Amino acid sequence: MYLSICLLLAFTSCSATNDGQVIDSDNPQQTDTLNYTNPVFEPVLADPTVVQVGNEFYAYGTEDNWGEEGGYHLVPVIKSKDLVNWELVGNSMDKKPDWKERGGIWAPDVTQVGNQFYMYYSFSTWGDPNPGVGLAIAAKPEGPFVDQGKVFDSEEIGVANSIDPFYIENDGKKYLMWGSFHGLYLTELTADGKKPTGVKVQVAGNHLEAAYVYQKDGYYYLFGSAGTCCEGANSTYRVLVGRSEKLEGPYLDKDGKSLMDSGSGTLVVGRNTSGNGYAGPGHNAEIVTDAEGQDWLLYHGMAKQKPKLNNGTNRRVLLLDKLIWANGWPSVAGREPSTTSQQSPILD
């Protein structure tokens, strides 16, 4: 879908059909809801997270400057009723948190907690010696999310490059999993979710970031991204998975190798190996199950023929594909992003 025409400074709501025609959401036109072709949103929604509220989905991404294709966005939020046709809502934050002097707000993770929406986010610059994780809370999924301050930084928690948070509740307790190429870690949170408590546990090794955990059939499936995220068409980013009977691990891949070991992880989706397609597919959002019981995976990737915006920003578009489970293990068909017309999710 092509949103470049409508992402102007006025933040006019818009969406797009699968043939690339931009439509005004205030005057919606009939769209083909039976099929779609990737990407489902562009120009950028990096490091996506998604939350369902009623019959609508809200997705959020890393702070980015979309340049002439839409301008600056502080944690953009988009919404959809079908996971295919998305419209830009705007920025989910009114202002940047100020507990660090400088940095970007990266890789948000949004979850409904009671009647509120919690956004755990990374606050970091490239090569930051002391990045950290913060929490913002909103009454509505579109925001505004109001900053609650720092949850922890790398020095306090004792884990280098502490970014990419993922929130999960388990046995009535709140937990946060996080980390980026210095191990993935798990810690319990205080009852208000604002600070870590207890002992941190390492659950995966130094080759992964962007943790996400999904519970299915008695297992906790730990998804993580490996490789380089942001080298345009040369990016090697990909999604790997392991599973465990306990949240704290140990997590093993399909071959029985521990996710603590380098080179471990069963491939879920990687770059298209032939043709144009997408490079660097990774940092998946939460899995969405449709009305037919089919699981769907949202993640970002870069079209090889157009991997960057004119301003040099990585053009990480939003991709959607079925998640196929075979013998207890998930993957996208062919373990590559789809590039042809696919059947849309059935959500009615």
From TrEMBL:
MF-aspect GO terms: hydrolase activity, hydrolyzing O-glycosyl compounds
Q: Which UniProt keywords apply?
A: Glycosidase, Hydrolase, Signal
The protein's matches in SUPFAM superfamilies, at most eight in alphabetical order, are given as: Arabinanase/levansucrase/invertase
Among CDD domains, the record links this protein to: GH43_ABN-like
Q: Which Gene3D superfamilies match?
A: Glycosyl hydrolase domain, family 43
State the pathway, as annotated in the record.
Answer: Glycan metabolism; L-arabinan degradation
Which Pfam families does this chain map to? Glyco_hydro_43
* A GO biological process held by the record: carbohydrate metabolic process
The residues annotated as site (Important for catalytic activity, responsible for pKa modulation of the active site Glu and correct orientation of both the proton donor and substrate) are D164
Q: Which InterPro entries match?
A: GH43_arabinanases, Glyco_hydro_43, Glyco_hydro_beta-prop_sf
- Quote the catalytic residue positions: D47, E209
Could you say which residues form the signal peptide?
Answer: 1-18
Q: Which family does it belong to?
A: Belongs to the glycosyl hydrolase 43 family.
Q: What is the protein name stated in its UniProt record?
A: Arabinan endo-1,5-alpha-L-arabinosidase
* Species this protein is from: Algoriphagus yeomjeoni
| Lineage, highest ranks first | Bacteria, Pseudomonadati, Bacteroidota, Cytophagia, Cytophagales
